[in-house]
Design a protein that fits this description.
heterodimer, A: Rossmann fold, 5-stranded parallel sheet, 50% helix, B: 871 residues, Dna Ligase, domain 1, D-amino Acid Aminotransferase, Chain A, domain 1, Glucose Oxidase, domain 1, 9-stranded mixed sheet, 24 helices
């Protein structure tokens, strides 16, 4: 499955350079220069990570973030801003943004951040998938009960059952 | 009991046993979280270090610096809270509450904008007085005040208010765009700032003014012209908030537009607003630590006076605070050339004693005069030969001007700088009036040369002058950061490297001499800025000079003389801490109180709780500590052999446990034990090499007093209970991946943590070392920390001691360099454990110090030769 990124920023040059670097790293990249265009992409396509310039002219970055998280709660959204404001930053984080980065930022470290966001998302997904398959083990058994009691009295040593 | 058991079981049942595969996934997810958390932790500490440095260095910085760092720290701390929640859901409540509290305060400190109390866009000059300075700027407020209160002539006019400015600049997010551009330009490099200035001014001039402002201005302009036969012409001048207060005149920073007709008044207004971002104005605010937000641009509009002559009066001598005579500069025509210095001007000095008279005058040949065009604008026109050399004002006018100056000075009770114009009919108009600053009288610059030195006087010759000057003083050798606080006022700073971090001392230094460094370095720049004479690249100066030597540094000749040589008379140099009391600096200082201090020092103490977090640093510290704990607990709780920690098989005499977080082992290791050969973790191996390099001699022989001190502490201090059977007591833990290692040793009462990343990317590499505890009394523990600090600093660490807690850091160096430092740390954790027992015995301190130094040299040498032989 290809890792997919959506970049939202009004600086075309910046988008081009960043796309190129990400594609080299094996990401599939789409770009949008307005909130409207971005949401169109979100509707029709799947993404793992979204990079969102919160100062995109004519749009309210926070509103776009809200909408993205509403439509696709699992996408990791990295907010990017040229004007650091604590309240906006924390508000965004509370709305579920994955990170909040402040310009100027080197392209390389931005690529690094996007990669980290992707790793983080896939780790989360793996766990979510695992949760789904968990019910098989959910049956409480006698052994488990004994283990707990054992642990309780022996200060959480190793589980005596497990072999490998 | 039943209740407890039930609760216990219910929580445990919700977490069913995991199969090995699930466990692996779960563990990876946890490790991922943990890594993110460490990453954030690192970024917080870096930003804190930047703030601390800014507060210490007192270099100019702007509000974007303050906002960026505070925001970065807030975001990272927020992420750490979330990461910890993932690792231990619901276990550490209260962190969010504390975080929100701190956020609330920071927000308040960073958004300090005062609401405008009057929304009117335009105020007629006749309605303005000093009380309206916050609405129309001090310059127009002063002018309105004297117009209505004093018997002086001020041209009619109006002021365009700060409300108008705010509406204009807030319109279509103009201000946000400006702030964005400022933030995007990193640093204060002059070339970048210059480009930025042009762009921002362009942006302002291009953007539209809301219609209601235009209408208000046009109406006011129309009223000025009412009843006059000719269409009105005005002069527009800046009258920014905060401008024209004593000590911050902003003179010449902003734009003015003369002789403007109603058709162009809006364009002229825009240009003046834009000049808030002229390069000089940006630099001026930056270098004085002023906040851009505090300077709303108000604009004054007054009826244009086509002056016969004009000029500026200083009600006192600006260059000599003791001279109270009145100084007048004057030219033919508009006073503009006096202000911008483009034409030679006449100079009159008048005595204040009555009857006032001209004491001296200097009449220059004035080649041109500035005159209003009949339509709009102004131009310089050449003057007729006979008029050039005539005084531009006569004696009578000079006395009238002097009287006016004294009247204004008396009214404002402070020396004034007055711009005036005399019209065709001889009326004197006051155009501007503002407080002036007087300098301490400068010493005469002498042409006399320094007495030819005798040869024997010369101690050292050589080096590069990086900041000019001549100074005498006492030598102070700076060997490490800990020496900084001892640096005496007026001392001569002598050190090996020209490190930027010494800059804060320059304010107090008479001169600076170093063995290394260049003219382009930061320290050289700072020395020049502060006017401290500096001589760099003086070889071996640390050995040639001794602490306490009296020397004289002459940078021009690159000579260091013995003793105090009589200096040639120099201009007295004024050094000022401009930044320290500035608004930007104060904002950073205030916010830093909720960010920087670390109050949670002891993880063992009962105080170590979310509720006791008072700063973002505290929260960071708390989360870091707990996350490490949670990572360890996981393996134990889930009883997986692969995920649990293993005992290290080795010959060293202590227990060592290893937890593999990811790829820290060379292969899958089953069972309870792991051999050192199977460890793949680069940083752990480096530490281990240091740990086993030199056998421990055992505790140092204790003198009677030292032993008593330890015994006494052990009986009174419960935390010193050696028999404690806590799972951590006398255990040493490594948490590892290939490039990461968290190494915790707890040997009885000694507690140390090394956390480090070492890999091929230097940018990511770091070592942080924390050391705490010790059996002896507080005083000896502190002495040991100082001992340890010296050794760490000698080895390139930057060290910070708070109470009896030592934190050392080292960053962004190459792999081999980092490994070498980890060797040293591994060695130190083993060998300095019980040194506090001998800390009061100076001969033993000396012995151990030299032993440790020698050991470190040996370790470094042997490791180096080993790695060479491998290559």
């Amino acid at each position: 499955m290809k890792k997919k990124v959506l970049l939202i920023d009004d600086e075309k040059e910046f988008l081009e350079v960043l796309s190129e670097r990400l594609e080299v790293r094996g990401f599939g990249v789409e770009t949008a220069i307005s909130g409207e265009e971005a949401l169109r992409w979100i509707h029709k396509s799947e993404f793992d990570v979204v990079l969102l310039d919160v100062m995109i002219p004519g749009d309210n970055g926070i509103e776009i973030l809200k909408e993205i998280k509403r439509l696709r709660p699992f996408i990791h959204v990295i907010m990017l801003t040229g004007h650091a404001k604590i309240d906006t930053a924390i508000w965004g984080m509370e709305l579920g943004a994955y990170d909040y980065l402040i310009k100027p930022i080197e392209i390389e470290s931005l690529v690094e951040k996007i990669k980290m966001a992707y790793d983080s998302k896939s780790a989360q997904q793996m766990r979510a998938r695992q949760e789904e398959t968990r019910p098989i083990h959910k049956k409480p058994d006698r052994n488990r009960f004994l283990t707990v009691i054992y642990n309780f009295f022996h200060g959480f040593r190793r589980d005596p059952r497990s072999k490998s | 009991m039943y209740q407890i058991l039930k609760k216990f079981l219910s929580t445990k049942w919700s977490k069913p046993p995991l199969c090995e595969k699930d466990l692996r996934i779960e563990f990876r997810a946890r490790y991922h979280n943990f890594r993110l958390l460490l990453n954030s932790n690192k970024r917080v500490l870096e930003a804190i270090a930047r703030i601390e440095q800014a507060l210490r260095d007192k270099h100019p910085f702007g509000m974007p610096f303050v906002r960026t760092n505070c925001t970065t720290i807030s975001v990272e701390v927020f992420r750490m809270i979330k990461n910890l929640e993932e690792l231990a859901p619901g276990r550490y409540k209260g962190l969010h509450t504390k975080f929100d509290e701190i956020q609330h305060i920071l927000n308040k400190l960073l958004s300090h904008k005062k609401p405008v109390r009057d929304e009117k866009f335009v105020f007629p000059l006749s309605s303005i007085n000093r009380d309206k300075a916050d609405l129309v700027g001090a310059k127009m407020a002063n002018l309105g005040e004297i117009k209505s209160r004093l018997d002086v002539t001020v041209p009619d006019g109006f002021a365009i208010s700060s409300a108008a400015y705010q509406k204009y600049i807030g319109h279509s997010n103009l201000q946000e765009e400006i702030d964005r551009r400022f933030q995007t330009v990193a640093g204060n490099h002059i070339a970048k700032l210059s480009q930025l200035s042009t762009e921002v001014q362009e942006l302002i001039v291009q953007s539209e003014i809301p219609d209601d402002i235009v209408q208000a201005i046009m109406e006011a302009c129309f009223r000025l012209g009412e009843g006059k036969e000719k269409e009105v012409r005005v002069a527009l001048r800046s009258s920014a908030l905060g401008e024209d207060t004593a000590g911050r005149t902003f003179a010449g920073q902003y734009h003015s537009e003369l002789n403007v007709g109603p058709g162009n008044i809006i364009q002229a207004y825009k240009k003046i607003i834009a000049s808030k971002y002229s390069l000089q104005a940006i630099a001026y605010r930056m270098n004085r630590g002023l906040r851009d937000d505090d300077f709303d641009m108000c604009v004054g509009c007054t009826v244009m006076i086509d002056a016969e002559s004009g000029g500026v009066t200083y009600s006192r001598n600006p260059m000599d605070i003791q001279d109270n005579s009145i100084h007048i500069s004057a030219v033919w025509g508009l006073p503009k050339p006096v202000v911008d210095g483009s034409v030679a001007c006449d100079h009159f000095v008048l005595s204040r004693q009555k009857p006032m008279s001209v004491i001296s005058q200097e009449i220059k040949s004035k080649e041109s005069r500035f005159k209003c065009f009949p339509q709009e604008g102004q131009c310089g026109i050449e003057l007729l030969k006979e008029k050039r050399n005539m005084p531009s004002i006569d004696q009578r006018q000079a006395v009238l001007l002097a009287k006016l100056a004294v009247m204004l000075e008396n009214y404002y009770d402070s020396p004034q700088n007055i711009e005036w114009a005399i019209s065709n009919d001889g009326t004197i108009y006051i155009l501007q009036c503002r407080p002036m600053q007087q300098m301490e009288k400068a010493a005469r610059t002498s042409t006399e040369k320094i007495a030819r030195p005798k040869r024997e006087n010369v101690m050292i010759q050589g080096g590069i002058a990086v900041s000019p000057g001549f100074a005498s003083g006492t030598v102070f050798q700076l060997k490490g950061g800990s020496d900084m606080i001892k640096f005496p006022e007026g001392g001569i700073l002598v050190t090996t490297q020209a490190l930027p971090k010494w800059a804060p001392l320059l304010n107090r230094a008479a001169a600076l001499v170093t063995e290394q460094g260049s003219v382009a370095g930061h320290l050289a720049t700072v020395a020049r800025e502060l006017g401290v004479p500096a001589l760099f690249s003086v070889s071996d100066v640390m050995n040639l000079l001794r602490n306490g030597d009296q020397i004289t540094v002459d940078t021009d000749a690159s000579i260091i003389y013995e003793g105090r040589v009589k200096a040639p008379l120099m201009d007295s140099m004024v050094k000022k801490d401009i930044i320290e009391e500035s608004p930007v600096y104060n904002t950073l200082k205030e916010t830093s109180l909720y960010v920087v201090p670390l109050n949670l020092l002891d993880p063992e103490s009962l105080e170590f709780t979310p509720m006791n977090c008072r700063t973002l640093h505290d929260i960071t510290r708390f989360i870091h500590e707990k996350s490490v704990l949670e990572m360890f607990n996981f393996g134990r709780e889930h009883g997986s052999s692969e995920r649990a920690s293993k005992r290290l098989v080795h010959h060293a005499p202590m227990k060592w446990r290893v937890l593999n977080l990811d790829d820290g082992f060379r292969e899958v290791v089953d069972g309870k034990y792991v051999k050192i050969d199977l460890i793949a973790s680069i940083p752990m191996l480096a530490l281990w090499d240091g740990i086993v390099a030199i056998p421990w001699e055992g505790p140092p022989p204790v003198d009677g007093k030292g032993f008593m001190s330890v015994m006494f502490q052990a009986t009174t201090n419960r935390s010193l209970n050696f028999d404690q059977r806590s799972p951590y007591a006398n255990q040493n833990y490594f948490m590892i991946s290939k490039n990461f290692c968290n190494f915790t040793t707890k040997l009885g009462v000694h507690f140390s943590t090394v956390e480090t990343v070492v890999g091929d990317l230097s940018d990511e590499n770091y070592i942080s070392f924390q050391f705490k505890g010790g059996g002896a009394d507080y005083d000896r523990r502190i002495k040991r920390l100082a001992f340890l600090r010296d050794i760490l600093e000698e080895n390139g660490f930057s060290v910070d001691i708070k109470e009896d807690n030592l934190i050392a850091r080292l960053e962004n160096q190459e792999k081999d360099f980092m490994r070498e430092k980890l060797n040293i740390l591994g060695y130190l954790t083993i060998h300095t454990r019980q040194l506090d027992m001998i800390m009061s015995n100076s001969s033993k301190v000396y012995y151990y110090r030299s032993k440790i130094r020698k050991d470190i040299r040996d370790i470094v040498r042997s490791q180096r030769s080993e790695s060479e032989s491998i290559q």
